[in-house]
Design brief:
The protein is of the alpha/beta class. It has helices at 4-16, 19-26, 30-44, 60-87, 106-119, 130-138, 205-216, 232-238, 282-293; strands at 92-98, 121-127, 144-148, 159-174, 194-195, 222-223, 244-247, 258-262, 269-277. It folds into three domains: 4-69, Winged helix-like DNA-binding domain superfamily/Winged helix DNA-binding domain (Arc Repressor Mutant, subunit A); 77-164 and 271-293, D-Maltodextrin-Binding Protein, domain 2, CATH 3.40.190.10; 167-270, D-Maltodextrin-Binding Protein, domain 2, CATH 3.40.190.10. It is built from nine helices and nine strands. The strands form two sheets. Strands 1, 2, 3, 4, 7, 8 and 9 form a seven-stranded mixed β-sheet that branches. The protein has a two-stranded parallel sheet with strand order 5-6. Helix 1 (4-16) packs across helix 2 (19-26) and helix 1 crosses helix 4. The radius of gyration is 23 Å and the shape is globular. The mean pLDDT is 87.
């Protein structure tokens, strides 16, 4: 069985991309570090690193092993923090994550702070994709996820999904675009445009919503030469690479030279849900209920 020390050594090597830097940060000799990795590989029965390359590169088996053991180390760290909180008189420790395209409003944060104070709960907020959240929730490595539906790559039968928001969708156009000053648009108005977002047919969330809207309007979205799945889309629109469709919470009013036009299509909404495991504690369920009871989060 691999030791915790070996897993930590492996993690540091991958993070630094160098045996030398990893050894320095771990305060051990590089030869000792290399020996531990060789012993680990011997015990596992496969190579973790491809030694035919000059740079640090994981083998396919090594990449899978690293991913899973990193999750275990993260879970151990969270468990340690939870135990420390309990030793200090805290009643619970929750981990919450949201997708990068879903902003947490001031009201949401105020409600979270109030709940944490009144219930003596410690709440840690992180950021993961919808797919990652589902996996972490199923593996009980995350308590609450805030994500966009659908998530096509995972089965979430073990989870409770509570509708949290129904966000209106907007077309994002460069300010000099011919349609930029329209009060409203329909998706069909964008059929001849290049999209800077990435409408991946096998992924859910906004990518799936965008493609579905375009197909329902009679066309497939044409990809721009440069694209992004994240908030970088707004910069690409600003620079004239193309247009996009985003949810309301992704709007950034500080960016100049782009216009946000609401879409009037009946289906032009994105569903956001709060997800948690069916075996979650009553306290966690009360927290979720508190969040859902607050309007306009």
């Amino acid at each position: 069985m691999p030791s915790m020390k070996q897993l930590q050594y492996l993690k540091k090597i991958v993070e630094t991309g160098s045996y030398h830097q990893a050894a320095e940060q771990l305060f051990i000799a590089q030869s000792a570090l290399s020996r531990q990795i060789l012993l680990l590989e011997d015990e596992l029965g496969f190579q973790i690193f491809n030694r035919e390359l000059r740079q640090i590169r994981l083998t396919p088996a090594g990449a899978y092993f690293y991913k899973k053991t990193s999750q275990l180390l993260q879970a151990l760290q969270q468990s340690t923090l939870q135990a420390q909180e309990l030793s200090q008189g805290k009643q619970a420790y929750f981990t919450l994550a949201h997708s990068s395209s879903i902003g947490l409003s001031e009201i949401f944060l105020q409600k979270t702070q109030q709940f944490a104070f009144t219930q003596q709960v410690s709440i840690e907020i992180g950021q993961y994709s919808s797919e990652q959240q589902i996996e972490l929730l199923i593996n009980r490595q995350l308590d609450i996820g805030i994500l966009r539906l659908p998530v096509l790559t995972h089965d979430y039968a073990e989870l409770e999904l509570v509708e949290y928001q129904k966000e209106r969708l907007y077309a994002v156009l460069p300010s000099q675009h011919a349609l930029a000053n329209c009060a409203v648009l329909q998706v069909s108005d964008l059929k001849n445009e290049k999209f800077v977002s990435v409408p991946h047919p096998e992924r859910g969330g906004m990518s799936y919503v965008l493609r579905s809207l375009c197909v329902a309007s009679g066309f497939n979205p044409q990809p721009a030469a440069v694209r992004s799945r994240k908030r970088m889309q707004l910069i690409l629109v600003q620079q004239g690479f193309g247009v996009s469709i985003i949810a309301e919470s992704m709007i950034d009013r500080t960016l100049m030279a782009i216009n946000y036009i609401p879409l009037s299509d009946q289906a032009a909404y994105a569903q956001v849900v709060i997800a948690y495991h069916r075996q979650a504690s009553p306290l966690l369920k009360n927290y979720v209920q508190d969040l859902c009871d607050v309007s306009n989060l």
